[in-house]
TrEMBL record:
<keyword id="KW-0732">Signal</keyword>
<feature type="signal peptide">
    <location>
        <begin position="1"/>
        <end position="20"/>
    </location>
</feature>
<dbReference type="Pfam" id="PF09923">
    <property type="entry name" value="DUF2155"/>
</dbReference>
<dbReference type="InterPro" id="IPR019225">
    <property type="entry name" value="DUF2155"/>
</dbReference>
<protein>
    <recommendedName>
        <fullName>DUF2155 domain-containing protein</fullName>
    </recommendedName>
</protein>
C-alpha cells in the first residue's frame, strides 16, 4: 500500500513537472476582471506588461503574463501587484491563475480581481 502511494506521488510529480514546462510563452499583456463588491460593478480591462490600472481605491500592476504553448486563450498565469490607496505594503503580490482563481486570490473586503487570459501581439 505504501509503495502504491509513493508510485502515485511520483507520477503526479512527473505530470506536474511536464505541465509546468509547457507554460513558456509570454503574452504582451493580460485581460483582467475586477469586481467592486460594494457597488456590484464588474469591469474588464486590458493591461500591457508593466502597465497599471485603477479600480476604485486599488491600483493593479501587471508584471508579466504566461500561457500554455499553442493555446494563448488557454490558462493564463499573471504576476500582479495590487496596492490600496493609503497603504504602504501591497495588499497582493504574486501569481494569479485563470483556471484556478481560488488558488491564490486577492483577499480584500471590497474588491476581487481575476485573470481571464493573456494578450498576444
Amino acid at each position: 500500500m505504501i509503495l502504491r502511494a509513493l508510485a502515485m506521488l511520483g507520477l503526479l510529480a512527473t505530470a506536474q513537472g511536464a505541465a509546468a514546462q509547457e507554460v513558456v510563452n509570454f503574452g504582451t499583456g493580460a485581460v483582467l476582471r475586477g469586481l467592486d463588491k460594494l457597488d456590484a460593478k464588474v469591469e474588464d480591462f486590458t493591461l500591457e506588461t508593466g502597465g497599471v490600472a485603477v479600480l476604485g481605491l486599488i491600483e493593479i500592476a501587471l508584471g508579466e503574463c504566461r500561457y500554455p504553448v499553442g493555446n494563448p486563450s488557454g490558462n493564463a498565469y499573471a504576476y500582479l501587484t495590487i496596492r490600496e490607496a493609503g497603504v504602504a505594503e501591497p495588499v497582493f503580490r504574486g501569481w494569479m491563475i485563470a483556471a484556478s482563481p481560488a488558488l491564490n486570490p486577492l483577499d480584500h473586503p471590497r474588491y476581487d480581481v481575476w485573470v481571464l487570459r493573456c494578450t498576444t501581439s
